[in-house]
Structures are given as C-alpha cells and as structure tokens.
Write a structure and sequence with these properties.
Structural class of chain A: alpha/beta
Shape of chain B: globular
Oligomer: heterodimer
Number of helices of chain A: 8
Number of domains of chain B: 1
CATH topology of one domain in chain A: Rossmann fold
Distance between the termini of chain B: 33 Å
Order of helices and strands of chain B: HHHHHHHHHHHH
Radius of gyration of chain A: 18 Å
Largest sheet of chain B: none
Number of helices of chain B: 12
CATH superfamily of one domain in chain A: P-loop containing nucleotide triphosphate hydrolases
Order of helices and strands of chain A: EEEHEEHEHHHEHEEEHH
Structural class of chain B: mainly alpha
Number of strands of chain B: 0
Strand content of chain A: 25-35%
Largest interface: A-B, 43 and 38 residues
Shape of chain A: globular
Number of strands of chain A: 10
Helix content of chain A: 25-40%
Distance between the termini of chain A: 43 Å
Helix content of chain B: over 70%
Radius of gyration of chain B: 19 Å
Chain lengths: ~250, ~270
C-alpha cells in the first residue's frame, strides 16, 4: 500500500482560478480515517471551490486530490464511490418522499432497492426520521431536511464524508444534533470528515482545524495546539487572518 | 461497477423522472392540453382553409387535423425535451444536479440516463395524446401505433439531446424564456408540423430551406411516416446525424474540464 493510500483524503499543491481570478493557491492537507477536520474560513475563502474540485464538479488544473489513494482525475469512479457529500445548497427533491430521495441516491451508486433498504432504514433511524420516511420532503423543517441529507450521504457507506457549511440557517438544536452525529461517525465508523464552516465554535476540542483565507491554507493543526498561544480558537483565527491580510 | 449496477443507476434516474412527472400535475396536464388545444381549436379553424393533397405517407385526401396530428406528437416531444433542459437548469440552480454529478458512474452515462428518462416520459405523453386523438377521428392503422415507437424514441432522444446542449449553455433559469422565443417557436413554425413543405416552397424558398435543415421537420416526418406504417430513410438519417451532433456537444458541455462548470465556476465562492 502506498503511504498516501492510508489517507481518506489527500490534497496536494492544489491551485485553481476562474479566468484571472485565483481562488485557490497551493492548498495542501490531508484527512485521515476517523479525523474530524474542520475547514475554517470566511465566506469567499475558497471552501466551496475546494469542495467542487474534490467532488470533481470541475477539474483541478494544478495539483492533485486523492481519496484513499485514488486520484480524483485519473480514477474518479473509485474516488467518488467512497465519498459522501452534503452540499452547501439543499439538494433534495422536495416533491419526492424522504425514502424516495434516499433510494434515488442509492441507485446513483448502483445499489438496488433491496440492497439499500437496510441502510436507508438504519440511517433514517439514526437521524430520528424513520417515522417520516413516507412524507414528502416539502413537509419537513429546514433542520429535518438537513438531517435527511446527512442520512442520504451515508446510504452507500462512504469512508470519507464532506460537508459544506451543513449548519447554515439551522437553529442551535439542529446544529448540535448534526455535529454530534458526525463526530460519532468519526469515532464509531472511522469515517474521515471534512467539515467546512465559517462558525468557529463548530470546531470542538478533538477537531483538527485548517484555516483557509483567500485561497491559502494559513494553519493546519489540532484545535488545542492552535488555540494555546492565543487563549482561544477565535483569537487564533483573528490573529492569523489579520497577519495574512497585512 | 458491473452491468447490474449500471442498470440500477439507469432505472433509478428514470424512476425519479417518472415520480417528478406524476407529482407535478400542472406539468402533466399542460403537456396534454397544449397539443389538444391545437388539434381541437386550431385544426378546426383551418379545416376549411387548408386542403392537403395526396402526398406520402397518406394514400388519400386527408382532413387538416389528420395532417397535423404527427406534428403535435412531435410538439409534445419538443416541449418535453426543452422541459428536461429547464429541469436541468433548475436542478443546477437548486443544487440537485450536484447529487447526480457526484455519482461514481461516468458522466456520459448519467447524461444518457437523464436523456432516456425524459424520452420515456415524453413517449407516455404522446401515447396518451394519440389515444385521445382517436376520438377526433385521427385513426392511423393499429400497426402504426407500434411502428411509431422506435420513431418516437429516436426523435425524443434527438430533441432531448438538444435540450441537454441548451441546458449546458444557459446560466440562469430566467434565460429560459429566451429558449421559448429563439428555439421552440422557430423550430415549430419552420417545420413540416403545421403545413406540408411543398406548400412552404410555393410561398417562400428561403423558409423552405430553413425547414429542410430544421431537425424538428425530420423528427415530425419520421413520426408521420411511421404512424402510417411507412419509413422515411432521409428523415431517419438526418435525425440520427443531429442526435450524434447534439450528444457530442452535450458531453463537452458537461465535461468537468471544459464545460460550463469549469468556465463559470458553477456558483462556487
């Protein structure tokens, strides 16, 4: 096994531009299985572009992205098969039921209804929405829809989970639920997680934190190590971004 | 990924399209009402104005409503193809296109799946229309109902592929009104759907040639001939050629390295 194959996600030397506007510059980091990694950055830092490149919505021009050793450009099928994604925008079909949305996702991973059924049930049970499985998504609240999206991303049992601002617009209770659920996935199923956010308090003590500012990685360390010199993660973030701006 | 996995993926995409069609009753009803309005009102009004002389595939004089029925079947597919394209733009704006695009299956396969799903829906709509039209005395031979199926598949694929190409170029949902004005109406009116081309030729040679190169003309003629147990090889060839052209353009349009997402950033930060 190549050394990098052990990483759930490895990004190296990644740069990207739209026309003349450079969005990412020499970004490099890795996420190991079981890691809860928070990608912290203000709006416009390049988080969504990074996610689009990792999920191959468009191609990386410079640098490399590998999922469990599978290069996203050269072996997209193997890479995408091990990846679960919760996008920033809601992506559920509002007119379909909760269950229909999950089965549709399962089919996009080549799983039959019969094969996917136990996983659909289990994931809905975990997010507390099993009894709503026959309801149309339109009838659910914002927080419940987010939980359905999380359950959907896990139906094909991915080993790497990407979440782009998953708590945007949610109340405190729903935010806490999502955070706890995803952290538990890291502990119990060794899922590698990359959680993009601009909310500093979402990085708990056990998290690894990557600070992204104007397309560059300013810091990559444990939450505790980053916070120590500044008293808090918030202080560290302010200091790092101010130094970069200067 | 084995063949079974590909089949699960394809059937999942078609099932979703079918469910959306059933759930969106307005879309279902309007898809049916539009051609029926043309058949019942427009064709009745022109019944005595336009006479259609004997021309293949018809073996006798036919009333005007019989002439335009295949064109209206084509119209259902034309609107459906554009509707699929609209739903792709909608999916992209709403984000659900991303769910499709992060599937591990090859992108060309996913696009073909979307295309086939739209075609399947359009064929069901055409058969419902033909069943209702039967009560208006539009009664092609029974074997024609079977023979028209491959023609509908081919024309549906071609018009759906055109919709895919358009959806890869349309940036926002609002721009879709332009598609109505610049694609659907010109294609429909400069085709053989409403009047035979020999009549157009008498009126204006330039419009005649525009009709001849119009892919929709050949889709309609393919359907018309098949519905009356005949085969129009020229139209079949032209439809196949346009299908290949549009499919190629759609695959390029959705290519992650070259297509719209790469050029425009796909709404990223």
């Amino acid at each position: 096994m190549r050394p990098e194959a052990a990483d759930a996600l490895r990004v190296s030397g990644l740069s990207h531009a739209f026309g003349t506007r450079r969005v990412l510059q020499d970004v490099a980091f890795s996420v190991r299985p079981g890691d809860f990694t928070v990608l912290l950055g203000l709006n416009g830092a390049g988080k969504t572009t990074l996610f689009a490149l990792i999920t191959r919505l468009y191609s990386a021009r410079t640098g490399a992205i590998a999922v469990f050793g599978h290069d996203v450009e050269r072996a997209p099928r193997a890479a995408l098969a091990r990846m679960g994604v919760v996008f920033q925008q809601p992506t559920l079909d509002l007119d379909l039921t909760v269950e229909q949305n999950l089965f549709y996702h399962a089919s996009l991973h080549g799983l039959s209804r019969r094969t996917a059924s136990p996983a659909v049930e289990a994931e809905l049970e975990r997010v507390g929405l099993l009894e709503r499985r026959h309801d149309r998504v339109r009838a659910l609240s914002g927080g419940q829809r987010r939980r359905v999206e999380l359950a959907r991303a896990l139906v094909h049992q991915p080993s790497l989970l990407l979440l782009d601002e998953p708590t945007a617009g949610l109340d405190t209770e729903s935010r806490q639920f999502l955070l706890q659920h995803v952290r538990a996935l890291c502990r119990t199923r060794a899922v590698g997680v990359l959680w993009a956010t601009h909310l500093i308090d979402e990085a708990g003590e056990e998290a690894r934190v990557i600070v992204l500012q104007q397309g560059r990685v300013l810091a990559d360390d444990t939450q505790a190590a980053l916070s120590a010199p500044f008293g808090s993660l918030s202080g560290a973030f302010d200091s790092l971004t101010a130094r970069h701006a200067a | 990924m084995n063949a079974g996995a590909y089949w699960q993926c394809l059937s999942g995409i078609i099932r979703r399209e079918g469910l959306r069609w059933v759930h969106q009753r307005g879309r279902f009803v309007s898809a049916l009402v539009r051609p029926l309005v043309w058949l019942v009102i427009f064709a009745a009004g022109f019944h005595f104005v336009l006479g259609v002389s004997i021309s293949p595939p018809y073996r006798t004089y036919i009333p005007y409503e019989v002439y335009i029925a295949p064109g209206l079947a084509g119209m259902i597919q034309l609107f459906n193809g554009m509707q699929s394209s609209l739903s792709m733009v909608y999916d992209r704006e709403m984000g659900s296109m991303r769910t499709l695009m992060v599937s591990p299956f090859p992108r060309w396969f996913l696009l073909m799946g979307k295309l086939l799903a739209g075609v399947a829906v359009s064929i069901v709509q055409v058969y419902i229309f033909l069943a209702i039209a039967w009560f208006w005395n539009i009664r092609p031979p029974l074997t024609g109902y079977v023979a028209v199926l491959p023609a509908l598949v081919l024309s549906g694929l071609m018009l759906g592929a055109l919709g895919l190409v358009l959806s890869s170029f349309i940036r926002q949902l609002e721009n879709f009104a332009g598609v109505m004005n610049f694609v659907i109406f010109p294609m429909f009116f400069t085709s053989a759907a409403l009047y035979p081309l020999w009549r157009v030729q008498q009126a204006s040679l330039s419009i005649y040639w525009a009709s001849e190169i119009n892919p929709f003309t050949h889709a309609v003629e393919l359907i018309r001939f098949a519905l009356y147990d005949a085969f129009n090889p020229v139209s079949a060839l032209v439809v196949c050629a346009y299908l290949a052209l549009f499919l190629g353009a759609a695959v390029v349009g959705y290519d992650p390295g070259r297509g719209f997402l790469a050029r425009r950033g796909g709404g990223a930060e």
